[in-house]
Amino acid sequence: MLKFILRSLAGMVLTALCLTFLVFWLTNLSPNLEKLAKTQGNARMSDEAVASWLVNRGYNQALPVKYGQWLGALPGYVITGTDGTARARCAASTGPAEGDARFCGILQGEWGFSTVLRDDVSTIIATRLGLTAKLMACVMAIMIPGALIMGVLAGMREGSRLDRSLSTVSIITTATPEYVSGVVLIAVFATGTFGMNWFKGTATAAMDDANFTNFFLPVITIALYGMGYIARMTRASMTEVMTAQYIRTARLKGVSFGNIVLKHALRNALIAPFTVIMLQFPWLLNGVVIVETLFNYKGFGWTLVQAASNNDIELLLGVSIVSVLVVLITQLLSDIGYVFLNPRIRIS
Amino acid sequence: MEPLTWTGTLGSYLNPVLTLCVVVLVICVVAQIIAGFIADAVTLRSNADGTLMARGGLLGGLDRALTIVFAVTLALIVAYLIAGTVMPYGSAGIVGAVAKRFLPVILALIVLYALSIRFKRSLGLYGKLFDSTVGMIGFGLVMFWVFTAIFSGAFDLIATHDPLRPISGLKNKLPGVVVPEEGLFPHYLLGGDNLARDVFSRMVNGSVIVIAIAPLATVFAFMVGITLGLPAGYFGGKLDIALTFLANLILAFPVILLFYLLVTPEIVATGIPSYMAAALFVFPLIFATVLLNSRYYTQPAKRTVIVASTLAVLGWLYLSLISQDGTALHFMPSWVDGFDINPGILVVFVSVVFVNAPTVFRIVRGLAMDIKTRDYVAAAQTRGEGPWYIMLWEILPNARGPLIVDFCLRIGYTTILLGTLGFFGLGLPPESPDWGSTINEGRKLLLIYVHPPLPPAIALLTLVLGLNLLADGLREESLRD
């Protein structure tokens, strides 16, 4: 078991390094850097001015060197520029001095400075992630119990009217991406067109003070899309368990149907959905970006869109690291959890 | 000219009846579900003469009531549509007028269904689809949009106005508004958007883009996934480890971040999407060559002719596709270059293929690993067949069931991805009528004007729903034999 976890961890670290390098390379391509120079310096800079601006700030070093510095594995640059000013990576605002740290990268907690939101990347990400965590907590609180109940109810009597109704609902929700359900929900429940103006169409106010009227629509929009999928998986696993030999034995012994479902079938039917729920996290990230944009809720997904569309390189890198880590950690947890939950694998 | 109402004169009779039917239908379904927990289960009992007894009890009664109410509701909805095509223009309201515009599509659907059901026993898996209700509904929804795309893209039949041309005075006007200019279709059936263009025509023309890109991108993703997944699963070893690591790398990437990184103008300027296109689109070539070569390598004369001619055609298509004016890859003189596609669409296409291919790879690899242990593969190995023959002519045909089902699901997923790209305004030109971009434009004023983003949203929903139902029906039918 320990060996398995260690091997998964090593794979995860390797993947994280590769992915961050890829993002670093894509964000540090020369057109992006030129645009950065022009937005930070002067929009009418000549090509030579752009080049020297980039040289002075260490942007034209070799890519692996830049990546190493950004990661904090290589010492930060100290460059005396063509304009005579000395600049150092580790003392961006004050200029180089004795006693500066030599290494200043992600590993040392120096995430850089956002050019769009004018703040430290680490503080931005911390606050935005907190807001998204609030959203996700509500989504999970609705989605997981809802999906499991739907799946178990549908799967316990295969082919019944209840099964068919619930399966129809779950197939419709999986076919509705967030940007469709969000638009439809806002149109129906947040405007007067259909006479049901019950909720707020934006969730900006929910960042400080979330309540039912301004937070319900974004939460239900994300929850619906994931819910159908988990419910279908739960239903499949439940129908499989309900046809197993030991369930038939229990029925023949005269155990009541409710007891069979709750005491015999449920535990075994919930192993498969666990993995599915964990693997839903990366997809939820997608949903978060769409819903936060649609409802103007300034969380992590909204930050991603701002950083990407405004060429805010350091913020985008920070956001990418966090999202890649979230995906990888959930994958690791689902692998370990699956082994842990399934006695057949755990004991062998 | 009067503005149109939703259902016209017809609605004053039919609307109350339809409302009543729907309410009764909902009550029946809920009652039946609740009764399912408390009432006795319906069991089949036979009479003395061997016939079955009528299904009695609370549940049996509810079941019969439900069937009748459902049939009446369906008949009413069909009545709206038929009335729209038969009654003179305008008297059946917007619903009737829209039904009339979709008349060619509906006729084509009826012909298709009639022929398919008539000959379903000789049509293989496609014919079996017509044994499953779910599959038929899904196939109907999908074919509705396919026919819409064909008729409006090739014959310009369905749309009422030019999807790109604004008509002054119709900005954000409600559905059924009168068009002030002479000589055009007299109404904006589903209203005008915030640039005064016709919402209905934009939705119809958007289907052309979606129906053209989504299946084609999925085909390319499958080519890449199959060409890499089969050897990974069949040979295993280091090749498998390397390819699986690469696939997991792409899969661990949040999709939206990848889109933002690939589709921004700065990255397009560096030519990375063009190089990716060159790399990804070479896979169909490899696939076709290996497929034919492994089949005919025992007859070298025939093999050379077939492979050479296929390679010539596909190679020309490939080179014309990747050589584009104004991008990093432009090497063909214009008289050889067959066609140029919009660079925005090419970038979108490449990124969608890139995102989908690793998942297909994983599925194919898993199937290949499973199937290679079968006896017929061992028999082929004993016969002395080469590995590529076994992979492409023994393993692949036997993996077709799950692959066809996944193909349908994946077209739906690709449609969602295209919509996501449009929703963030990435790739496609901003005035493009595709559904994602239209939803994106409409959402900005959503709290004031509801009607512009709803039609494309519902169109996208029905298409993806149709594909999911179709996949369910196919899965059911392919598991049956």
Tags for this model:
heterodimer; A: 348 residues; mainly alpha; two-stranded antiparallel sheet; two-stranded antiparallel ribbon; 14 helices; 69% helix; 3% strand; B: 481 residues
SSE inventory with pairings:
The complex is a heterodimer of chains A (348) and B (481).
Chain A: H1 2-27, H2 30-40, H3 47-56, H4 63-71, E1 78-80, E2 86-88, E3 113-114, E4 119-120, H5 121-156, H6 161-174, H7 178-189, H8 212-242, H9 245-253, H10 257-269, H11 271-295, H12 300-309, H13 313-341, H14 343-347
Antiparallel strand pairs in A: 1-2, 3-4
Helix pairs in contact in A: 1-13, 2-3, 5-6, 5-8, 6-8, 7-8, 7-11, 8-10, 8-11, 9-10, 11-12, 11-13, 12-13
Chain B: H1 8-38, H2 57-86, H3 93-101, H4 103-118, H5 124-128, H6 133-154, E1 177-178, E2 187-188, H7 199-235, H8 237-251, H9 255-263, H10 265-270, H11 272-280, H12 282-296, H13 300-322, H14 343-371, H15 375-383, H16 387-398, H17 400-423, H18 435-443, H19 454-480
Helix pairs in contact in B: 1-2, 1-3, 2-3, 4-6, 6-7, 6-19, 7-8, 7-12, 7-14, 7-17, 8-14, 9-14, 11-14, 12-13, 12-16, 14-17, 15-16, 17-18, 17-19, 18-19
Give an account of the 3D structure:
The complex is a heterodimer of chains A (348) and B (481). The radius of gyration of chain A is 26 Å and the shape is elongated. Helices cover 69% and strands 3% of the residues of chain A. Chain A contains 14 helices and four strands. In chain A, helix 12 packs across helix 13. In chain A, strand 3 and strand 4 form a beta hairpin. In chain A, the strands form two sheets. Chain A has a two-stranded antiparallel ribbon. Chain A has a two-stranded antiparallel ribbon with strand order 3-4. Chain B has 481 residues and is mainly alpha-helical. Chain B is globular and about 70 Å long. The interface between A and B is large, with 53 and 49 residues.
